[in-house]
Amino acid sequence: MSRWSTKKTGPMRQGARSIARFLPAIGLGLALAIAAGTASAQRVLLDKIVALVDEGVVLQSELELRVDEIQANAARAQRSLPEPKQFRTEVLDSLILENLQMQLAERVSIRFNDDEINRILITMAENNNLSFDEYLNVLNEAGVYLQTREQVRKQMTLQELQRGMVNRRIQITEQEIDNFLNSEMGREIMAPDYLVEHMLVLVGGEEDAASKQSKLRYAAELVARIKEGDSFAAVRATARQARLFEVDATEFGWRKVEGFPNLFREIVEGMEVGDVEGPIEAGNGFHLIQLVNKAGGTEQMVNQTNFRHIMLTPNEIRDEQQTEDEIREFRQQIIDGENFATLARQNSDDDTSVVAGGDMDWINEGQMPRDMEVIIDALELEELSEPFRSSTGWHIVEVIERRVTDFSTIYSRNQAENSLRNRKFDLELQNWLIEIREEAFVEFID
């Protein structure tokens, strides 16, 4: 048996990175898991250590299993692999990197419980058009259930570790954000996407004025029906079936405003979700459009509510009914003239607001528990709510003020920072992997 060890290995081999495309990842289909299980079942290994990696080891069985998986994946994808000796070296290098990362993940306490693993398996089952139980049965029958779970757990762990370790290395300056927002690429990425429904009442090139006028009135009637509450798709389907006039449509799908015909661009930009526009006259007829949805963009107007509350939570000395009775008593005391803030400071169980007399300051829409938000949204200014139960306890609430705040600048800069960070991530990930490999103690056992 011969041994040789490395401390400084130089840049990570390009080949070790190139074979990564054949490695299994979270969300891959059932065929991958079964193929991997079949390959591993075809050989019986007398296990041994092939590499010492800091405080861990790489086993011969791990190497052979990974070789089988990659070869099977490459065969399905009809991709060629390096010559055998180089290929096995690259696979071993990738396993060493994984081992180093898993050791680091253990040191920083990155772990995923069974429920979190099951959520990924549920998604994998849905991707294969199977129920969760059916998917587990297939994995069990193939003898790869435990292997698949561990594969998912490892992938999740590596992703979480890489996200944490690499993001802390990436610095985005304010100047970089400004440059990105002012660049053509930045404007394109930050621009919103629109989902538009469309139909067209066709007009022939040689039609007389009376015929065109009839079609214009018909198109206006269709718009009116949509505005009265009929769905765009239903009105379009009915118009086609009626065959009073020829009706056509274009499926635009999600696209940025530059992707629409010039005829619609300015109109779409000015529409709110749900708006209908038309008839829009063009050479080929009268167009009708509806903005079904809008995503992205830099405009971010946020509804905010400033309220104060008293919260009581049932405990060892006050059961559910006693808690409700007490909160009702506090409400009556406030109605009778008792100071809300004083009662809150003396009695509220909400540690985050008790010092401020129950004042929650400005809360963005969607930041409260939904059952609580519904009740608060229905209150008038300075109206004292009836006692109500939420997931956190019993409350009485008074709305102090409401406003709409423009977070567009903050939102656009955050989005720009995220986009820049994503663009830098892959390069910084490779740099980090090179560093941890160079700093590691690795001893190969031939």
Brief description of this entry?
With 446 residues, the chain is α+β, with helices and mostly antiparallel strands.
Give a structural overview.
This protein folds into three domains: 178 residues, Porin chaperone SurA, peptide-binding domain (Triger factor/SurA peptide-binding fold), CATH 1.10.4030; 104 residues, Chitinase A, domain 3 (Roll); 106 residues, Chitinase A, domain 3 (Roll), CATH 3.10.50.40. The chain is 50% helix and 19% strand. It is built from 16 helices and 13 strands. The strands form three sheets. Strands 4, 5, 6, 7 and 8 form a five-stranded antiparallel sheet that branches. A four-stranded antiparallel sheet has the order 1-13-2-3. Strands 10-9-12-11 form a four-stranded antiparallel sheet. The longest helix is centred in the last third of the chain and has 32 residues.
